[in-house]
Design brief:
about 500 residues; Beta-Lactamase; Helix Hairpins; Heat Shock Protein 90; five-stranded antiparallel beta sheet; five-stranded mixed beta sheet; 12 helices; about 55% helix; elongated; binds adenosine-5'-diphosphate
């Protein structure tokens, strides 16, 4: 059965309270009984000593005056005065007892002829009284149905200090079994139990409300998120730490979902935009050709060239997107082999030399190896992918470098990393754009770049590929003073 949080908490509280009461109640009962017995013993002993001292005076003044019922004998106490040999000198009942005709347990024993002088002398409290010390004892009397009796024995001392007689008091103790409890106590117990149930219920409900309210809010927000509303958040800073942590985690989750949703929307819109431009050009060109240009042998050349250029741009875009998607999924399937990064840089410069020459840009490769360094610029990487990285960086540098300037590729080693830096003397990148330069479709000046054909994916690809190799990429630039991109790859011996 599924209980509500409140009912479950109330039940747990109730169990805890009852178990607590179950442990504490017997201990309290025992402590109370001990206190009661100590008080009773002390009181009976005091009475015995009082009577003994009264009798002591009589013994000293010669002749024993029989101790009467009217003198100091409390109701319910069986009073005896015995000589040191156990013989009874006086045997009295308390007045209330004799008047009410109640029997004392010791009398029952007496009646059964069980209390002989020998028997009396064998009792420890009497033995101690015979040695001059007052003592008490508690015993159950079988003859009185196992009833417990409290005894007090006090010596009556003669003038010479010898024990002349012993005052011996006995009184029955009340039953301490649960069944012997007064009925009012039973009702009080039921009252306490009811109080415990109510207390447990109230505490359970209060705590449940404090837990359930934020949980209900979270469930509501989660439903809204499931319906597509990613702007949901729940209040933080509650007094229950775990719920607060849960709330913070929930808010972080929705914030992150919202962010990635926005990024996804922006990405789709960017992709659509980038696809639409070449497709529109291709469609327009086809329409122009259909309108008759196709038959004009001289005119159709540039149209077909434009179509070829735009189709090429589309293919590059689709390939770039595919590569980034693979990198995101960790499915680049890199073929890692050791190779010399300087050698690869020289190869890529040679490959792009013609394009650089068209823009009157000179490509140079510099190797800055410390004199004592034994190893060349070895890295363990996928040479094709790193070639793609260098091509993208060199392509940008050639594109932005002014005619007549140099684009320099510098190789260095720093600690466990091999670095390859591409510098140009172009317009550089304004500082405010630097933090976003590796984001997909990010362009510093979209108007400027569109003319130059960039979709804003080149540096995102550089970033993804270098990261997939366990490396990193950094950029430094001062506007108007060129740009400097560095890739750092783990060095390989
Ligand atoms: P694209 O594919 O359009 O070249 P990139 O991701 O390679 O896109 O570059 C993103 C933007 O960074 C470019 O639009 C350009 O504004 C800027 N950029 C990249 N390299 C350079 C550079 N060497 N000098 C100046 N700006 C650069």
């Amino acid at each position: 059965m599924k209980l509500t949080l409140g009912a479950r908490l109330a039940l747990s509280y109730l169990v805890v309270i009852l178990v607590g009461m179950g442990i504490v109640a017997p201990l309290a009962w025992l402590a109370m009984e001990r206190l009661y017995l100590n008080t009773q013993s002390a009181s009976l002993l005091a009475q015995a000593q009082l009577v003994a001292s009264a009798l002591g005076t009589q013994v000293t003044t010669g002749g024993i005056v029989p101790y009467s019922q009217s003198s100091n004998v409390a109701p319910g106490i069986h009073t005896r005065v015995i000589d040191p040999q156990g013989g009874a000198v006086i045997d009295l009942l308390g007045p209330a007892q004799s008047q009410a005709g109640l029997s004392l347990p010791e009398l029952a024993q007496n009646a059964a002829g069980l209390v002989t002088p020998v028997e009396l002398l064998s009792r420890p409290e009497i033995a101690r009284a015979r040695q001059g010390q007052a003592a008490t004892a508690i015993r159950s009397l079988e003859a009185a149905g196992g009833k417990r009796v409290l005894y007090a024995a006090a010596p009556v001392l003669a003038g010479d200090g010898r024990v002349a007689q012993i005052v011996y008091l006995a009184t029955p103790l009340p039953d301490t079994q649960l069944g012997a409890l007064p009925a009012t106590l039973g009702w009080q117990f039921v009252g306490v139990l009811l109080g415990a149930v109510l207390l447990a219920g109230a505490a359970g409900l209060i705590l449940a409300r404090r837990i359930a309210r934020p949980l209900a809010k979270m469930a509501e927000a989660a439903h809204a998120v499931a319906e597509g509303d990613l702007t949901q958040s729940v209040p933080e800073g509650g007094s229950i730490r775990e719920l607060d942590v849960l709330g913070q985690a929930f808010n972080r989750m929705t914030a992150s979902l919202h962010q990635s949703d926005q990024a996804k929307t922006a990405f789709i819109s960017d992709v659509t935009h980038e696809l639409r431009t070449p497709l529109t050009v291709i469609k327009g060109t086809i329409e122009t050709l259909e309108d008759g240009a196709v038959d004009d042998l001289e005119a159709r050349g540039p149209f077909l060239a434009a179509m070829y250029r735009e189709t090429d741009r589309l293919i590059r875009l689709v390939n770039d997107l595919l590569l980034l998607t693979r990198a995101d999924a960790g499915a680049l399937n890199l073929q890692l082999h050791p190779f010399d990064l300087a050698e690869l840089a020289r190869q890529r410069c040679a490959h792009l030399e013609q394009r650089a020459a068209q823009r009157q840009v000179t490509l140079r490769v510099l190797e800055q190896l410390p004199p004592d360094a034994a190893r060349p610029f070895n890295v363990r990487a996928d040479a094709d992918r790193i070639a793609q990285v260098l091509d993208n960086l060199l392509d940008n540098a050639i594109r932005y470098a002014p005619p007549g300037s140099d684009v320099t590729v510098t190789l260095t080693q720093a600690g466990q990393e091999t670095a390859c830096r591409v510098d140009d003397c172009g317009p550089g990148i304004p500082a405010k754009h630097l933090p976003f330069i590796f984001e997909r479709f990010y362009r510093v000046d979209s108007g400027r770049d569109r003319g130059q054909g960039g979709a804003g994916l080149g540096l995102a690809i550089v970033h993804s590929l270098v990261l997939a190799h366990g490396g990193r990429v950094t950029v430094e630039s001062v506007e108007g003073q060129g740009a400097s991109f560095t890739i750092w790859l783990p060095a390989h011996d």
